[in-house]
Amino acid sequence: MPGIPPALHPASDLSAPPAQAAACRTRAVPLPPMGKHSAHVVWDWNGTLLDDIHTVIEATNASFAEIGLGPISLERYRELYCVPVPLFYERLMGRLPTDEEWAAMDAVFHRHYWGLAGACLLTAGAADLLASRQAAGRTQSLLSLAPHEHLVPIVRRHGIEERFVRVDGRVGSSHAGKAEHMVRHVAALGNVPPERIVVVGDAADDALAAAHVGAKAVLYTGGSHSRASLRSSGVPVVDSLAEAVEVAEELVG
What we know:
With 253 residues, this protein is α/β, with parallel strands linked by helices. 44% of the residues lie in helices and 13% in strands. It folds into two domains: 40-51 and 121-252, Rossmann fold (3-Layer(aba) Sandwich); 53-118, DNA polymerase, domain 1 (Orthogonal Bundle). It has a six-stranded parallel beta sheet with strand order 5-4-1-6-7-8, with helices on both faces. Strands 2-3 form a two-stranded antiparallel ribbon. This is HAD family hydrolase.
């Protein structure tokens, strides 16, 4: 998820105080040997494994109503969304928000989003796909800009935590996107070379983060971006997670 902009998405700055954040850092699990032609998939969460885009729009419009902005449609959201996030707001409002406006929008959105997020389901077929890859000896991990202290409990509630060798949510600010988080995530994986890694996400920022570490990317159309926006990233664009995995294996085969 990114991702979706901080004031409009669960990936914004809801980080815990330093001591609490340190206590909820990710667990690391030793990676099994990888097959010569197998991809290690780094999954995105919001808008990719979690089918929450309609919840994002619902929470966005509820928060907009509180701060005096008109509603936005899913299609319009996908057309306007971009990273760096301030450019999204400039497109939406015709100007950059002040720091005070940003903080207010962020707080209001999160109140609405986290009140609704518990009802979100995994993307169709995601649970079976993750299980089948694990059973086949393929490795996969999860990297999200959703705050770590929110990410881990919701992943556990969906019963898929054990499908990943590592689960990393964000600790600290995410305004600049996922690239530096990807650097830390890949370093923590240890013995997975970047050329065997394929990032599967729903946003152009996922492709940028992959390129930042020398990995490949496949982008899924079910989340925050329009197809045209995804295609502009220059990486494969797919309409299902199953297709994303197929393409990922082709990219490293």
